[in-house]
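Let us practice reading a record.
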Amino acid sequence: MNTTSNILPEGHVAVVIGGGGAIGAACVRAFAEAGATVWSVDLHEQAAAGALTGLLGAHRAAACDVTDPASAEALAGLVGKADSVVYAAGLNADGNVVDIDWSAYRKVMAVNLDGAFHIGAAFARRMSARGGALVFLSSTAGLRGEAGASIYCASKFGLIGFVESMAAELAGERIRVNAVCPGNVDSPMLREVAHRIAERTGADAGEIWRGMAHSGAARRLVTPAEVAALCLHLASPASAAITGTTVRIDAGAMLSA
């Protein structure tokens, strides 16, 4: 049973950047089931289209290189009217500061932070006449530093600063900007992180994964669908007075630190 059908007004157009990822795909589904027409966007259109499988409606898939401001502008022009944008594109990198792979550093920053600027600017410029909502996926790693995760943490800390600044700039134009900070999400990215930590430290990957899965007060992982539900709420009229806010969704992970 669809329990979200009345959350969004009729004719709502939502754009999900990173639609080919676990959280992005969950956002595509959540917004579609809430009645939106959804643009699923990823670096490759085929990956974006995969998130639309089985969904009813005139949804669209598109490709965009978020690291290129011209590509972001072209996407915003192609979409035209957008009522909400969810920025769920993201990369991770593991390693100590003294051993940083600078090419990995640049890739993570280019997607996690530069891309947010590019997409935010392109879509907010077109929302200014009628208002809208933008939701950016940060992380609990953007709230507290973690050993071996300096690149990722720096990008996500920076994203929160970007969101707060952008929200202050656009509040008078009825454009709301918020950040969502998931903890450990049951996703391929987190499994990849566990394997990289194991390779770097010599620990057992399975043991690292189990530790991640049982972190926090609730001792469980967050699901992509739970993150998507929060993004949907922040993009909906139910959150009309919420802007410049960072919302944590971590199953209590930061409570037990």
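A brief commentary: DSSP finds eight helices and seven strands in the chain.
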